Amino acid sequence: MARAATGSRRDPQLVSFFRLELDGVKGSASFRKCAGVKSETEVFEYQQGGDNETVRKLVGPSKVSNLVLTKGYVTDKDFFNLREEIASSHNKPINRRNGSLVVLAPDGKTEVRRWNFTKALLVRWETSDWDASSGEIACEVLELAVEKITEG
Fold first, then answer.
1. Greatest CA span in the chain, whole angstroms?
2. How far apart are CA 5 and CA 152, in angstroms?
3. Within its chain, how far is the Cα of 31 from the centroid?
4. What Cα–Cα distance (Å) separates residue 117 from each residue in 22, 42, 50, 66, 136?
5. Mind listing the pLDDT tens digit for each residue in 32-51?
6. Alpha-carbon distance 75 to 142, whole Å?
7. Which one, of 149, 127, 134, lies nearest residue 83 by Cα?
8. Which residues are registered as beta bridge partners of 40?
9. How many helices (H) and strands (E) does the chain have?
10. Which residues pair with 101 in a beta bridge?
11. What is the per-residue burial (b if ≥16 Cβ within 10 Å, else e) of 72-91?
12. pLDDT, position 60
């Protein structure tokens, strides 16, 4: 069995937080959970006439899932204002935002990974039920519809 060279070991980095950055939004938002970092391409099956043994697979459109950030804390009203801008647009042009989803280590500062996205719309803003006797902080949920996502 081959041995790894000294200093070449790479332990997995623990992930504890996700920070959301959006162009034109000065505030920050951090979350404990993130879902939807996914890109997929449709495949169409096509059987060519005269070739009964093979089904051709053709590439269709690609799409990106919505990013859903939960168990969060939002420090600035700019995120809520952005949601209100979209909800009350009534056939007015909507200013889509580019941004990043930054994966952070347990210290909350060390960047582990970054995903950049384009043309985002803040399509959902949600808080958990408020119960003063529970002692829990309200859970923020933000959902972004994005057109493209790349690793940065």
1. 72
2. 29
3. 11
4. 9, 20, 44, 11, 31
5. 888 888 999 999 999 888 88
6. 13
7. 127
8. 63
9. 1, 9
10. 20, 115
11. bebeeebbeebbeeeeeeee
12. 95
